[in-house]
Each structure stands twice: as structure tokens, then as C-alpha cells.
Amino acid sequence: MTVHDPIIASASGNRKAIPDDATMLRAAAELTREYSKADPAIYWPDMLASALVGYAGLATAILADSTVLALASGLVAMLALYRAASFIHELTHIRKGALPGFRLAWNLMVGIPLMIPSFMYEGVHTQHHARTRYGTADDPEYLPLALMKPWSLPLFIIVASLAPVGLILRYAVLTPLGIIVPPLRRMVREQYSALSINPAYRRRAPEGEFRRQWFWQEAGACLFALMLVASPLFLGWKPLLIYMAVHSSMTVINQLRTLVAHLWENDGDAMTVTAQYLDSVNVPPPSPLAAIWAPVGLRYHALHHLLPSVPYHALGKAHARLMATLDEQSPYRGGNYAGMWPLVGKIARSTMVKR
């Protein structure tokens, strides 16, 4: 499904050389006006059902006597909670007042119990969309993975598998200690308070209303992490270990999804919007599994970089409209790929090229 346009291919690895395509950008802007409204009748049932199915699966996995039932329930829990957690991406783009109460409900049901409250993504992800930041050293969500050493890819996934351990340490240990050790508190805020992949990224102190949101979300995650640490004293080790296995598996899938969300070929210079699009990835239908490993519209990640304000439930319609409107030579088709594993292979092969 990939379009190998010779102009696009020759610019691979030199993304800054790709000029903006006015026709594609104009068509995308028109769709933004048409599809920009978030529908509460879709958001609320989707998020609530995903969370409830996830926790039901988690409870069944913990209580099951059968290994087969426990594994099957754990798989259901992982996939459903992964979908529920993916709404954190939508929270960063939803216009203020569009979905009253949704942020609060998501944090109480998903963000705090998974120790990924929305403050860890809000104010971070929008920098990834900044025109002059994307793909540069100031982008918290970008690393030139395709230009790095081959061992960087497995390390990228292994680190993700340790996420629940890191989150427990962050909230059950570092948060309480930070209250009495101000320098530690600053370090935690700067280096361990963002869902980012750029290790050089440093977060600024929150201000205003966001500071108040940060406070109660962090306090809730801290209390939950402390309960997790204490849970073996009252419930034994099984619930905690199953929770961590589900959480780890969920994070690994998300990291794989992140790995193929971009081609990671930029060398640090600012890029045009079209170049940013072509460094990003759509996995549209008929790919049968993309809706599972890239839920809540994440299968249209390249399109999302053109239409960041369009809600997830409208991205499929927007994609179909652009495919029907733009001609065969449009750069838009160069952002469409067939599935996860061909993309993993493409990035892995790129890391093996001597530079």
C-alpha cells in the first residue's frame, strides 16, 4: 500500500528538502473545518466500555483457577485497558469545554489506576506537533531511531516492558521523597513527569489551572502506587504480579505502535508540514489488526499530523475523503503503509546502514 514516489524516496533521510504540497494541505484544512467536532456519544461509551471490560478481565485473571482462563482474561484486560489508556492522546487535543467531565472521569478510571495521569502527556504531546519542534532535539516524542545503532530498537522495547516498575518507583518513592527534598522534586518534575522518548527533554514547571490539575492527579497516582506496594501484605503477590504483567504487556504494544508511528529519519533539522507527514505513518484499512494495536484513531498517525484537531472517530472518514480527492501523485499516498511488521523491518534495515 506504500507509494514509492521517486521524489519522496530521494528525500528519505533528508526530510528538510521536501517542500510543502499546497494541494494536500489545502484539502486537509477544508476537512478540519468539517470534521473537527468531538462527539460525546462516541467518546463516553467507548472509553467507559474499554475501561470496564479491561478491569473485568483483570479481575477474572486474578481470581481464575485455570491457567488458560487466566491467560485469556489477561489478554482481554491488556487489550481493553490499552484502548482505554489510548484516550490520553485525545485529551491533549480536545478543545476546552467540548467534553465536560471527560478528563476527570478518564483520570479517575484509567489514568490514576494505571499511573499515567493525563498531566504526563498534556503540555508535552502538543510540543511534538509544533511546526518548528517536530523531529528536532526539542521534540519530546522524537528520536532518529532509523539513524541509530541496531541495538537501539530492542532496547527501545525492553525499556517499555519495565514501565510498571518505573511508575511505581516514580509515584510510591520519588513523589513522597520530593515533598521533603525540593531538589529531588525538581528533578522528578523535569525528567520523570512526561510520557516522552527523548531523554534530553526537560519539563517546565506547570502554571495556573494546569498546576492544580497536576497536583491532584499526582497525589492520586501516589496513593494508588502506595496501595500497590502494600497490597502483597493483604492480598498476596498474585494480584500485583498479574496487574504488572498486564500493564507491562500493554506498554510494550504501545511502544511497538510508537516505533512504527514514524519513520524516524529526520536528522534534527526543522521540517515542512509535508515532510513531517511523510515521516509519519498511516496504516489504513484493509489492514486487519491495526485497529487493535493502534486503537482510538492511532492507525492514522500521519493524517493526525495534518489534522491534529480532528477527533479520532472522524479520521477514517477524513482519510477516505482525501484518498478520493487527491490524485495518484499526491504525497498523501506516500504516508500509507500495509502493517506493523513491514514497518519494523524497514526501520531495522535502516539502522544497519553504515553512515
Describe this structure in words.
This protein is mostly helical and 355 residues long. It has two domains: 6-35 and 262-351, no CATH class; 41-244, no CATH class. It is built from 17 helices and no strands. It has helices at 6-11, 22-35, 40-63, 67-85, 87-91, 102-111, 125-128, 152-161, 163-180, 182-191, 208-235, 238-259, 273-278, 290-293, 301-306, 315-325, 340-351. Helix 3 (40-63) packs antiparallel against helix 4, helix 9 (163-180) runs antiparallel to helix 10 (182-191) and helix 9 (163-180) crosses helix 11. The radius of gyration is 21 Å and the shape is globular. Residues 1-13 have low confidence and may be disordered. One of its GO terms (biological process) is lipid biosynthetic process. This is Fatty acid desaturase.
Give the secondary structure arrangement, pairings included.
Elements: H1 6-11, H2 22-35, H3 40-63, H4 67-85, H5 87-91, H6 102-111, H7 125-128, H8 152-161, H9 163-180, H10 182-191, H11 208-235, H12 238-259, H13 273-278, H14 290-293, H15 301-306, H16 315-325, H17 340-351
Helix pairs in contact: 2-16, 3-4, 3-6, 4-12, 8-12, 9-10, 9-11
InterPro entries: FA_desaturase_dom, Fatty_acid_desaturase
GO molecular function, one term: oxidoreductase activity, acting on paired donors, with oxidation of a pair of donors resulting in the reduction of molecular oxygen to two molecules of water
GO cellular component, one term: membrane
